[in-house]
Amino acid sequence: MNEVIKIFGPNRLKGDIRVSGSKNALLPIIAASTLVDEVRLQNVPNITDCYFMLSIFRELGGNFTWLDNQTLGLGFSKAKSDTLLLPYVTAVRASILFVPAILFAFDHCKIFLPGGDSFSPRPVNYHMAIFEEFGFKCSLSKNYLSINRSRRTPNRVTINLPFASVGATQQAILMATFFRVNTEIFNAAFEPEILDLMKFIKSLGVKFQVLFSRKLIRVFPAKRSKPRKSHIFKVQGDRIEFITWCILGALCGDLVRVTGYPVKWLKRPLEVIHETGARIKVESKDTVLVKTQGRIKRVSVECKPYPEFPTDAQPLLAVLATQCDGNSTITDTVFPSRFSHCEELKKMGAQITVKGNSLTVKGPTKLLGASVLSHDIRASASLIVAGIIAEGETTVDGIHHLKRGYEKFDEKLRSLGANIFTMEQEVDHFC
After folding, report:
1. Which of helix, strand or coil describes residue 362?
2. Cα-to-chain-centroid distance, residue 201
3. Which residues contact 162 (CB under 8 A, 6 or more apart)?
4. What's the confidence (pLDDT) of residue 294?
5. Gap between the Cα atoms of 223 and 100, Å rounded
6. Neighbours of 146 (CB within 10 A)
C-alpha cells in the first residue's frame, strides 16, 4: 500500500495556524548535540528527517528519549564508530554534519555521500575543502567520502567559501568548535537557521563575532574540554512553513492568522506576497494576518541566499504565480534546476515555461484537479497548495517527501477548512 493525499477543491481557508519547529534548524542542532553530554531540545517537529538524524546519532553511540510530543532528550559521550555507511546517511543531507564528531574521536572517517532532495546536484566539495583546512586529506569515491589526518590542526583557520552555502557554513562552525580553533568564515551564509545553531553552540561557551556587512563569521571556541552540564534549548519555528501558510492565505484565505516565527526575519518574502496584492497585517512580533484581496498582481522574483527570497519557497511561489494577472518570472540562483514541480503543475493546467534557471508563469489560469507526483519536500507542498485552489479532485503521490519536512500538514489544512485527506492507495504490480 502507498499513501497519497487527496484534495477536493477549490477551498477557502480561514483560521489560526502555528508553525512547527524548524527542520532546517533542528537537523544541524542534533549533529551539534554530539558536543555535550546531555541536552533537552524543545519544539522538535515530528518529521521523517528528524528520525533519520536520530538513527545516525544512535549509531554513533548516542541515545535519545522522547519526553513528550515536542521534547527530545539527547545523550552523547564520544563517537563509537569511525564509519557512517548507513542508508540513513544517503537519505538526509545534514548527515555530513556528524563528520566533525567522528574526526575528533578517531582522526579519520568514512561516510556515504549524503542524500536529501533530488532536485539538483549538491556536491560535497565545499565540505572537503573545510576538512582539509583543519589538517585532513579527503578522497572521494563513487559512493563515499574518506577523510584522514594528514597534518596537525593549525592554530588558526581561514575559510573562503565560493558561495554562501548554508551546509558549508554550519560545517565550518562545527569543525572550529570541536577542534577549538579560532576560525574566520568569509562569504558565510546567514540564514536564521544558522543563527539558531550558533545560539545553541554559544550556550556551550563558544563565542562568535558576526559581521553581516562583510559576510564574515568569526568563531572563538571554548578552551575547556567538552561541556558536561545538561542544558535546555528551544528550536526556532519553521521559516519555510510560515511562508507556505502566508502564500496559501494570499491565494484563498478569507483570513488566516500565522504565528510562531519572528516576522523580522521574513522581510523579503512578506514583501513579495504583499506586492501581489494580498493583505498582510503584522499583528505581533511572531504573528501575521493574511487575506486574499481582489486581483493578484504578477511577480518578478530572484531566489537568493538570506535575506532574499528563499529557494525553498520557490515552488510555492510558482503556484501563486499561476493566479497572477500577467506573466510572472521566478529565477532560482541557488538551485538552478529545482523545477520538478513545474511538469506536475502543467498537468493541472498551469502554463509554465522553464528556461535555464528561470521559469515564466502565464496567469491567471484555472487549475483543474489531476493525479500528480512530488519529487521533493517543497514540491510536495506546492502540489498540495495547487490542489487546494484547483477545481475537482487532486491526488498527490510521493508524500513521503512531504513528511520529511512538514509536520501534520494535512491536519493543519483541515483545521483551516480544507477538504483534504491522507489515504492508502493500492500499488499495481505487474508480472
Report:
1. strand
2. 20
3. 126, 187
4. 87
5. 17
6. 15
How many CA atoms lie within 13 Å of 389's alpha carbon, on the beta-carbon side?
27
Cα atoms in the 13 Å half-sphere on the side-chain side of 427: 7
pLDDT-above-70 percentage for the chain: 95
Rounded Cα gap, residues 155 and 149, in angstroms: 15
Q: How sure is the predictor about 139, in pLDDT bands with cuts at 50, 70 and 90?
A: very high
Among 317, 223, 305, 238, which Cα is nearest to 270's?
A: 317
- Locate 38 and state its grid cell: 546531555
In CATH, the number for domain 23-234 is 3.65.10.10
pLDDT of 216 reads 98
- Taking alpha carbons only, the member of 8, 3, 4 closest to residue 387 is 8
Residue span(s) of the chain under CATH 3.65.10.10 come to: 2-19+237-425, 23-234
Query: Which residue type sits at 284?
Result: S
Gap between the Cα atoms of 93 and 53, Å rounded: 10
How does DSSP assign 366-402, residue by residue? --B--EEE--SHHHHHHHHHHHHHSBEEEEEE-THHH
Q: Give pLDDT, residue 142.
A: 83
With contact defined as beta carbons under 8 Å apart, do 382 and 251 qualify? no
Instruction: Find the mean pLDDT for residues 184-211.
Output: 96
Mean pLDDT calculated for residue range 44-53: 97
| One-letter amino acid for residue 131 of the chain | F
- pLDDT of residue 431 exceeding 50, the answer is no
Name the CA radius of gyration of the chain, rounded.
Answer: 22
Domain 2-19+237-425 sits in CATH at 3.65.10.10
Q: In the prediction, which pLDDT does 116 show?
A: 53
Helix or strand (DSSP H, E) at 100? helix 99-106
- Count of other CB atoms within 10 angstroms of residue 127: 23
What's the rounded Cα separation, in Å, for the pair 218 and 156?
A: 11
Helices within 120-266 (DSSP H only): 125-133, 166-179, 192-202, 239-252
DSSP SS3 for 256: strand
The overall longest dimension of the chain from CA atoms, in Å, is 64
Reported pTM: 0.95
User: How distant is the alpha carbon of residue 215 from its chain centre?
Assistant: 21
Q: What local confidence, expressed as pLDDT, does residue 430 receive? A: 46
Read off the amino acid at residue 235: V
Confidence band for 105, pLDDT divided at 50, 70 and 90: very high
State how far the alpha carbon of 225 is from the alpha carbons of 37, 178, 179, 205, 424, in Å: 12, 9, 10, 10, 51
